[in-house]
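User: Hey, my collaborator sent me this sequence without any context and asked if I could get a structure. I don't really work with proteins. Can you help?
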Amino acid sequence: MRVSVIAVAALALGLTACGSGTDSGKGGGTDDTLVVGATAVPAGEVLTYVRDHLAAKAGLKLEIKEFTDYVLPNTALQEGELDANLYQNQPYLDDFNTSKGTDLVSVVKPYLPPMGVYSHKVKKVTELADGATVAVPNDVTNEGRALKLLAAGGVIGLKAGAGTDASPADVTSNPRHLEFRELEAAQLPRSLDDVDAAVINNNYAQDAGLSPTGDAILLESAKDNPYANLLAVKRGHEDDPRVKKLAKLLVSPEVRTFIQDKYHGSVLPATGG
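Assistant: No problem. I've predicted the 3D structure and written it out in structure-token form, which is a compact way to encode the shape of the chain:
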């Protein structure tokens, strides 16, 4: 992610802790509280449901720390300030481990937050004018994901074999001569008045009051989708009994029903694999 030193410092100061645990926030603290980092929507909401309705019965004490970016939850997990986090997908985690030298692994994948294309100017992606500007996330995996979504919608073509790290250099067909503006993922909702369309991650769309099922002019399909969000821990902590309890709860019938009832298709329960 291209986050400035100043932005990182501000985000670090702005972290919001919620939950009833008394732990200091250090991973593996002095009591049995499991400290989990998350973005607010949907991860924070799903974890809050687990904490408030399921955790006590399972013998789990859960503290949730909310983050406003995609970098700090992983660095905090690697450094032991968190026991786990929930917000990212496997391609992003793989790229983060490679680029940052972290050693984080997936435990369970409880839901899929589909990425969407949003616009204040057109109602369909096929209405984008020649030379239209489309904002996309500026990190490798989310930019690749955005381009694949545009390709799936028939707006552009990508070269054969373009994977999760696809970039504008992999665009082989661009009949509308779209111009891609790379922005930090969190800034994309605020760009909608300045661009013709933006490809926005689910959590930031919902934070901005956008409904993926109601407002997106193009939305990812769940079929064969590799971008389910995952519960991550530092390697070697997969068998922590607290982590295993949380993993089981995240794919429980109760959480599946909560996701279906609350998000109405804007977030999709996964199989938990």
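In plain terms: Residues 1-26 have pLDDT under 50 and may be disordered. You can pass these tokens on to your collaborator as they are.
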